Amino acid sequence: MLLNYYRRWKFALAAGPLGRVWREEVRPARRVARARGQLRGLGRRLADVAYLLRLERVVFFLQFGLGFALAAPRWDLADLRLLVLAIVCLGPCLYGGLYALNDAADAAADRLSPAKRRRPVAAGRISPLAARRLGMALVLTGLGLALLLDERVFALGLAFAAINILYTHVFKHVRWLDLIFNAITHPLRLGGGLWLGGGLTHWPLLAVWALICLANSGVKRLYELHTAPPASRPVLRRYTAPQLMRLLAACQGAALGLCLCLFLPPVELVLAGAALLWSLAVVLGYRWPIAARVVALFGR
Known about the structure:
Elements: H1 2-15, H2 17-53, H3 62-71, H4 77-105, H5 107-110, H6 128-149, H7 151-169, H8 177-183, H9 185-197, H10 203-227, H11 241-261, H12 266-284, H13 289-298
Helix pairs in contact: 3-9, 4-6, 4-7, 6-7, 7-9, 8-10, 9-10, 10-11, 10-12, 11-12
């Protein structure tokens, strides 16, 4: 009986003036707070997707634009449209999907690495199945758009996809090939821009950039030798610090020799010299805080 009295009193209170005040003031505040929480959750999910696709790495396709500019110094609107659409096909679409597929495949190993365990798949914020589905959809979209755009862009897309898939499933476990296939996509971006622009006469600059990229790939492995457990990347057990330092010295020496002996044109010499100085700074100071942050960013 007391329970029935309480229920009647509660119903009367809710239907009365106080109940109307509560509905008019408290409920809207709760709706606003709920909407804010939903927006924050949506923002975190979008940030996880952006991290999964490494959208910030689209900046690496500036190499593609640089190669295009060197090969075709005079542009028109059609050239600019081709360049922008090619970067969209190969960057956010194709490469974003490849990064998602790689994270799904490496989730178990990434959980063991201090630098990679915060990745969305490794941290459990995105499931491996969702990452694979998103990755496959983006890769197929990128290849399809590239095929519609230009056969050269489609060929570059196939090359990028093949290199990354072979690296993820085969070559990342093989000493030295791990470094080569990790570095090769950067000179391929520059060479792809040169090819799309209509000329490969700048091959000395391409050779210098390939050596610098190989040295930078060695720096990443040297950094991981000091910071990551071998279980996070089993191939680390096959490298030693002296071996990697000899590789870095050989690559830097060969790049410097090409700059001095091939008599590069002024623009190419400035570009090669700037890249060589930047690489030397990273190689010599990979244990410094700033260099360590740069290496960690490239290894995200």
